[in-house]
Specification:
- The protein is an alpha+beta fold.
- Among the domains are: about 30-90 and about 255-355 and about 615-650, Periplasmic binding protein-like II (D-Maltodextrin-Binding Protein, domain 2, 3-Layer(aba) Sandwich); about 365-605, Dipeptide-binding Protein, Domain 3 (Dipeptide-binding Protein, domain 3), CATH 3.10.105.
- The protein contains 21 helices and 25 strands.
- The strands form 9 sheets. A 5-stranded antiparallel sheet has the order 1-6-7-11-10, covered by helices on one side. A 4-stranded mixed sheet has the order 3-15-13-12.
Length: about 650
């Protein structure tokens, strides 16, 4: 389990610098010279002349991965289950995490990956990365600085593909510059200090610079092929735009299912697509990459496992049944929730599995976000009334929700960083969590909304206060049931709230258009606060309580952008300083002020602090840690080096 407080920045930022130039060099561990070994399925291809010898497929200094438990054996398939075609995040979390750098398995530091080392200028405005020489894409083509430049010039800066550059590449309103120094050296230069770059590069989105093979994708890009030739390719594919074809071939965003729909797309991952995520797919299958750049301490090329298969299921119940029947080898996503714990515990012997722990990075089981920038001026006035929000919070019986819905797990909690972080704010975490109907009515009266003859409170327009809360059909907690209970609590104090169960896509469409009354979502940002401050100020499109304000911050020219109040603007200024401050302590000071403003403003309403989750692992499936954080920021289980998982036959 991670051993230090991960609150402000997750990591000690490589002591990013004081007054001197900072640098990091990987401790190079050489596998036994010319003693590399390979999987039998690859040895057969070498013998037939289809592949070059393993020594020629590996880089000059392969990255050596120390197994969690023991040196593994080759062969076998890792079986998992996906919840439909839109669940490609499971593939990213298990087989899609190879960047320049990466989190250490315990999430306490950053370590080399495709970059063997790096140097940082004294003011943190310039980062020079030295690539691991001799790494090859899965088709045998060398991976070089040209691939990083292709991402930057042809993709990240191409406004047809992406109207805006990656936010993590922007400092002081200016996009950073990426340049090739030589075949194995690239430099990122920014207009000012970029204190968070290494951390951003450890996120799933941060793998972008090394995820687009120039030699393959350039044949679908207008900067590299004649327009008439590209037009024919687009027409032959039954499409209308080159951008559609480019995405279909694997050139879309990292968090896109299309990247797993093309078996021809070269990759640097341990496994490559064999059976794609097609429209009618019932199973996705990945097969080992013969050119993967990592080995174990004995010189065995990784991965140990030949295949990964993902069976597509329509619901969680099907996945749980598969686990009970021994059809899932290792997985926490979807199945590792309290609802399933009892049945999975009862069937451990039948399914031949045991549990591992996934400490939660979330700070709340369910956040209620009233739309403070609602287009209806009446609802906007009501929702922006802090006393109104306080009254609603006091009206919620959190202990009853925890008992009835959350299996008694957790404590009443608001939207603050978790208690085990160095940015914990007691006021934000605990304020207004008492169940007190008298106080609820007192604050609603103070807000100026009196009870009408029908028992409901009347808004400034003279009509009953009534609004809906959008909630998706399923998640790790039974949100729809919690929302039903909250509706009953609020009715007792004269507020009509109507639960509105919608599909996830519909919820996202409504809030992106700023058309929602309110939505519920999980409380991200309990750990990794600096990289995920969505609930602490209007930071991103995931700041569900203030979409118009976040548009003003991220895209002032957006048609929905609206200037936020002074307090939120102050938070935005502070966060811009965080992004340009390389010193960890200073970052924490700035974040603490942001969080204190969030406590004073009380933007959203929380329910409870989530307990740790869990996953299951078959008893013959080895090298899975006993504990790993549960987070998209740490896209578990990928940072635990899934390429060293293996099946051990007794």
């Amino acid at each position: 389990m991670y051993t230090r407080k991960l609150g402000g920045n997750l990591i000690l930022l490589i002591a990013l610098l004081a007054l001197f130039s900072a640098s990091y060099s990987a401790p190079i561990i050489h596998a036994q010279d010319s003693q590399y070994h390979e999987a039998p399925m690859l040895a057969e291809r070498v013998a037939s002349g289809e592949l070059p010898p393993v020594d020629e497929r590996l880089p000059e200094d392969p990255l050596v991965i120390k197994p969690t438990e023991e040196i593994g054996v080759y062969g076998g398939t890792w079986h998992m289950g996906m919840r439909g075609r839109n669940d490609h995040a499971l593939i990213i979390r298990t087989a899609g995490y190879q960047g320049l750098v990466r989190w250490t398995p315990d999430w306490t530091d950053i370590e080399p990956n495709l970059a063997v080392n790096w140097e940082i200028s004294p003011d943190a405005s310039e980062y020079t990365f030295y690539l691991r020489q001799g790494v090859k894409w899965s088709d045998g083509t060398p991976f070089t600085a040209d691939d990083v430049l292709f991402w930057y010039e042809a993709i990240a800066r191409n406004t047809d593909l992406f109207p805006s550059p990656p936010s993590w590449m922007v400092i002081d309103g200016q996009v950073g510059v990426v340049e090739k120094i030589d075949d194995y050296t690239v430099r990122f230069t920014f207009s000012g200090p970029h204190g968070l770059l290494l951390q951003y590069l450890c996120l799933p989105e941060g793998t972008s610079p090394v995820s687009y093979p120039e030699h393959y994708l350039s044949q679908f890009h207008p900067d590299y092929v004649p327009q008439n030739q590209l037009d024919k390719l687009v027409q032959d594919a039954g499409l209308t735009q080159w951008t559609e074809l480019f995405a279909l071939k694997g050139g879309g965003i990292i968090d896109s299912g299309s990247r797993w729909q093309n078996p021809e797309l070269p990759t640097l991952h341990a496994w490559m697509t064999e059976i794609p995520l097609s429209v009618d797919a019932t199973q996705v299958r990945l097969v080992r990459n013969p050119y993967f750049f990592k080995v174990d301490p004995e010189g065995n090329q990784l991965p140990y496992l030949d295949y990964i298969t993902y069976d597509l299921a329509e619901d969680v119940e099907t996945l749980v049944l598969g686990a009970i029947n021994g059809e899932i080898d290792m997985q926490s996503r979807h199945i590792g929730i309290e609802d399933n714990l009892a049945v999975l515990t009862d069937n451990m012997e039948t399914g031949d599995y045991h549990f591992f722990e996934t400490p939660s990075s979330f700070m709340n089981t369910m956040i209620i976000s009233l739309n403070l920038t609602h287009p209806d001026p009446v609802k906007r006035e009501i929702f922006q009334n802090k006393d109104f929000r306080i009254g609603l919070s006091y009206a919620i019986n959190r202990d009853q929700i925890i008992s009835l819905v959350l299996y008694g797990q957790g404590i009443p909690y608001q939207s603050g960083p978790r208690p085990d972080t160095d940015l914990y704010n007691e006021q934000l975490a605990t304020q207004y969590t008492e169940y007190n109907v008298a106080l609820a009515n007192e604050y609603l009266d103070k807000a100026g909304y009196d009870l009408g003859e029908d028992g409901y409170r009347v808004g400034p327009d003279g009509n009953r206060i009534s609004f809906s809360v959008d909630v998706i059909t399923t998640y790790r907690y039974d949100w729809s049931l919690i929302v039903e209970l909250v509706a009953q609590y609020w009715q007792q104090v004269g507020i009509e709230m109507i639960p509105n169960v919608v599909e996830r896509n519909q919820l996202y469409e409504r809030k992106a258009a700023n058309q929602h009354d309110a939505v519920v979502w999980v409380g991200d940002g309990g750990l990794g606060v600096t990289l995920e401050p969505r609930y602490y100020f209007p930071y991103s499109v995931e700041s569900n309580y203030a979409e118009a304000w976040q548009y003003w911050y991220n895209n002032p020219n957006h048609e929905l952008a609206e200037e936020p109040p002074a307090s939120a603007q102050r938070q935005m200024v502070l966060y811009d300083q965080v992004k340009t401050t390389p010193d960890l302590d200073e970052q924490n000071v700035l974040m603490a002020e942001i969080i204190q403003i969030a406590a004073d403003e009380f933007y959203v309403i929380g329910i409870s602090l989530p307990p740790s989750g869990y996953g299951i692992v078959q008893n013959d499936f080895y090298n899975v840690p006993a504990s790993m954080p549960d987070s998209w920021t740490y896209p578990n289980p990928a940072p635990t080096n899934t390429e060293q998982y293996f099946i051990k036959s007794e």
